[in-house]
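fold-stage: in
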Amino acid sequence: METKRDDWVRYFRAENQPIEAMHAYFRTHRYHPHSHDTYSFGVTERGVQAFRCRGAERASVSGMVIAFNPDDPHDGHAGDAPGFVYRIVHVGPAFVARIFGDALQGGSRQGLPLFRDPVFSDARAEQALSRMFACLFDGGTELERDERLADAILALSQRAGVTRELRTVRESSAARVARAVRAELEDRFASDIDLEALAQSVGCSRYAMYRAFVARYGMAPSDYQRQCRLRAARRLLREGGSLAQAAVQSGFADQSHLTRWFARYFGITPGMYRRSGER
């Protein structure tokens, strides 16, 4: 456990599966706007957790469930002075898609399910998630962990909407620009690139490029590039790299710069993340 003033965090990371979880109390910490490349399912245990997601202000109080789709931009902070306690699990899309495919279409449905609401009340889902968190943080076996995770995902299945691959919506020119900018940022995340060069790479003006990207992904290109760097640093740390190596190879100026932004995006330090694998 590590503290920031009176905030505290516990972190779980599976070594052989795309599963990570956090149990935290935050009174002072504020998340910088970000998204995950995973599904994220959480339960607020105490207090009020406030955040902005999908263009609206949200609040999760005790017993409510949070469900973020991959790439859902959001922030987060205490909704009142006492702060809040919550648990959240991040699960790889392939794992979630497989469980939902079994639940929704007898194994025949393909694609990634999308959750309609980022926060909601559902007693069955909340109880299933709480049982899963107890297993993750209190020493359950790997078999118990997988069973309870599957049970939690199945309990959430009624909240799933259309699948991402099956939607038939024509992509606009602005969406194509945003997607091209995203690909450029992901390819060159560790390099310095200015707004003009980025706009030229996708063949439009700086203003049109910036507006299209923010509309599609809910954050500025600079924030997305930093997020790519942080995801790369997480991967390097999972693979056993040092903090100094992760900072340099992911494009940060130094280790302190990585540490500062890592905590603002993920709520923990990179050192704690590196030590959070199963023991």
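fold-stage: in (second)
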Amino acid sequence: MAYLIALIPALGWGFMPIITGKIGGSSANQTFGIGAGASIVGIIAFLIMRPQVSLAAFLFSLVCGALWSTAQVGQFISFKRMGVSNTIPLSTVFQLVGNSIIGVLFLGQWAGAKSLIIGFIALLIVVIGALMTSVSDGQSEKKVTTANFLFLLMTTVGYWIYSTFPNLPLVKNQDPVGVFLPEVLGIFIGATLYATITTKGANWKQKENYLNILGGLSWGIAAFAYIFAARELGSNTAFIFTQLNVIIATFGGILLLHEHRSAHEMKFTVAGIALIVIGSICTIFA
């Protein structure tokens, strides 16, 4: 049962960009939908489970959730610039490499020469895989350029903060279910501010603003399930299962969103995805 639960985050996070891509709308509509949908999941979970959380941890989680929304905005903009099938592999690699480096420098992970060697070899495999998925024949309008690459990298900082904060002393000993609600409420606040400011309130009259809540429900269910997967299997094993979302989102973008790939590009994409998954698995041995 624990392994089935661990598959939920992979499915939810993998299908989220497919759902929002199918619905369409602006990055403001899509970001608002994620915040609103995730908040619905968070409120229901909080009312049913009634977890305990301190005021300080609540407020801190709220801020971290708002910072996460900045990264999600960057990802949605990148979907439109590069396509889902290009963005997700790169975003996954940026998150994995960034979180690993933060873990080594500040959280005492990969202690010892052997762990460092294994860890950085695994990250090198992941980076090579990401570069392979970005190989382009130049025929598609949605492709990885230097500007698009750097934009996605810079906005990924919000994901790094969000991923690191559960290990900080203020929230480390809190019930994960307890901090889940303020996290998603922070996402909702950040998303609402972004959508309202960038569209000057026009988003509230657009149906895509509300249809994209379906993508938010997918994301929220995945994030909530991950809490229990990590409890049952450990965060390392649970994380490996989440990497399946790269496969779902990448090939879903190609097949369901009709993002063009030539036969030559597909060979590199398949090989690159395989390396990303292999490298991610290798990090647990570091």
